Amino acid sequence: MKRTTFDFPLSLERGGGEPLRAQLIRGLRAAVHTGRLSPGSPLPATRVLAADFGLSRGLVVEAYEQLLAEGYLTATRGSATRVAIPLPGESRVAAPVATVPRPGLPPPRPRFDFRPGIPDVALFPARAWMRALRRALAGDSLAVFDYPDPQGVEPARIALATYLNRARATLADPARVVLCTGFAQAARLVGEALRARGMRRIAVEDPGHAEQCTDLRASGLELVPVRVDDRGLRIDELAQTGAGAVLVTPAHQYPTGAVLAPERRAALLEWAARQDAFIIEDDYDAEYRYDREPVGALQGLAPDRVVYVGSASKVLAPSLRQGWLVLPASLTAVVAQAKLSADRGSPALEQHALAAFLEAGDLDRHLRRTRAIYRRRRDVLLEALEARTRGVAAGLHLLVDLPDGVEDIRLVEAAARDGIRVYSARAYYAWPAAAPPSPALLLGYGGISEKDIEPGIQRLVRLLWERRAVP
Amino acid sequence: MKRTTFDFPLSLERGGGEPLRAQLIRGLRAAVHTGRLSPGSPLPATRVLAADFGLSRGLVVEAYEQLLAEGYLTATRGSATRVAIPLPGESRVAAPVATVPRPGLPPPRPRFDFRPGIPDVALFPARAWMRALRRALAGDSLAVFDYPDPQGVEPARIALATYLNRARATLADPARVVLCTGFAQAARLVGEALRARGMRRIAVEDPGHAEQCTDLRASGLELVPVRVDDRGLRIDELAQTGAGAVLVTPAHQYPTGAVLAPERRAALLEWAARQDAFIIEDDYDAEYRYDREPVGALQGLAPDRVVYVGSASKVLAPSLRQGWLVLPASLTAVVAQAKLSADRGSPALEQHALAAFLEAGDLDRHLRRTRAIYRRRRDVLLEALEARTRGVAAGLHLLVDLPDGVEDIRLVEAAARDGIRVYSARAYYAWPAAAPPSPALLLGYGGISEKDIEPGIQRLVRLLWERRAVP
Known about the structure:
homodimer, 471 residues, alpha/beta, four-stranded antiparallel sheet
């Protein structure tokens, strides 16, 4: 029978007035009372405890028996002696687990969940990831356990550069890659680096990603909204902002799904060169494209102007907290320094696992598989919608225009009450006062199963119909 | 034969003037030239590429043969076709891996490494950790893959509270635990929270941990040094600083190894209550103790005054980047919010693994094993030293006093040239101007093998002797 070994500080005074047995009983009883030994937790085998404290085993057996008799402990044949549940009396000090609401926790999942921006985590390639972790742990270098290179471990930087150069047409040098924990941290690190260069204003897409804006604002930058139309960011308006940097989603604008048009790409790069400005390229879900040619990353055209940001959140799972930056030479050292200061570098084992995962071609395999699944979900969604949609050629979400006069916010609320999670596109306009957008919904199809799409949309359409009938 | 599947955007124009075969050859050649396909990387099987692009397999075979002939590709029987090394010509754009010096990278390991503050990573319980990871991945909830609770996943917070309450005598409520990536991030998060409450000054131990000071300063706090003697922090001097918080290492002062004396503990808690101040307790290596009773955490005496900080860096491995905070009720929400803003929460899989590791008793087992090993190393070190030492009863390092007149900094430099890494205690005095400490060395024995200790010390003593003879 395997017993849990035990790390438990207990002071025994030898040669004092109180017998050791009494001291042991008192110490254990106090530990239970104060919550140091929580209800249900196992005690060490008498043999182990005796050895730890230099006591005879018989003495420990006696102490346990006393506490069993008092109701502090329970014992079942063939299993460890444990702290009793419930305890005698009610004098435990430590509070039970409170379930207070905490910031950032997603609400419980609704019946029909069209949340955008997340992949279907049920598709996570757990077996391949485990294999990669095993390979990382089996590596022959002990460096994998020491403080990591804060910029990211070299094998991961090489594997990422190789992957991105091939799949996303970047021009990434591993020496300019910085591993981080996702877009939120990337924005903080780059924001700090830009602030340190004296930059004050950064342009962002409107509509855009509200959370990204918070991340950038946290580093002290002033955000300037620039409008987006169906050809992507309005570069003519960008040029009038006086901003020293801009955050864009050129491959698949969030949330409109627009692709930055070729002439706009050229104009954006020209603007950056003219203004000595930086372009932060959020390449958040570019790997998912269905009916169109892939759009290469802007970074490949101007590696000394573009900060490329990608992450595993959409292509694998958000819980991995793995992201990456490809940086211009002028920003690499300062961003790496900011990463060191923020958290001494990302967890190393998982970086090595990512490297092994990429090298084995497991990401390619996973994307090949999931792309087909998401494409089917999108097709089912389009068929169910029979409506005007935008941004459908790629990604994990689309926009559907609502009939004029529909109060989109109320529809979203009514849907929530009916077990359907959808989002109003309005929420993505940081500055809605300027020109209120026509009503539209954002529907994500990454996290909803194929068979749930049609019934969910039917229910949504019924709600829409009711709301139009009763305005 | 298993082939790597392939995610590679290649534009083929159908119905245009150029034959598809020519387009494919041109596209692959360009990909090699620009570095999108790096030397040595495998190409997909002809069958796979043909299916991907809707081409006949024969056409793809022809294209590969052409590129083989041109020297772009190489093929070995029974293995994938690969990009050739070296390439024909030299027009590759992507630079090779540069090995520029980067911040925070530890220097290459010397022959005799007495670096303090790290465990022996060769002792890392890789098998048990892998088992814990497997258990985390095999859990029945998909939530393990979604964005984590930024405060830390609940099983990890419960397992940590249970462990700390038992082993460190804390009074930790899981609802007040925040998972983070180690002391550096903990200091940033708490520093931000204190600044947000209007706090400006924080007292720190002198001598103390220089890196911690940087972490705290980064959040905008002014640091006030307070002297440490052989009974720990001078509370009388602390009371005169007007600081609203203090960072202490009560169980094992860093670097002197002093234990905060009982009357000082009481005085510190009294000061905090009187001043409505917070105590940040860095419990960095309290699990390693040899000749003395364990000293319980201060947090257990005043859970609403003390911010408890611990991490896996000393007890398991720094590369895991796992740390934890136990917070007063008044600080929990704001620190959790800061964590959300910093990185959206720590990687979830590893938190679940930590929970499984703790629940299985694997940390207790690991500590039991390593404590015996480190105790032996310390004993060997003490024997080799035959000198006045301090802080020997616990931890992974000790201080050894040098004879008066020895120039400690020069000795450290001479030792480094001779393949011995030791540190001058002087480096830990943030404000050495006040009273220059008598010369002493800091010797870590966590990362050096038992058999290397004696020869390393002998070599060091020889150097010391030479330096005294030739001042």
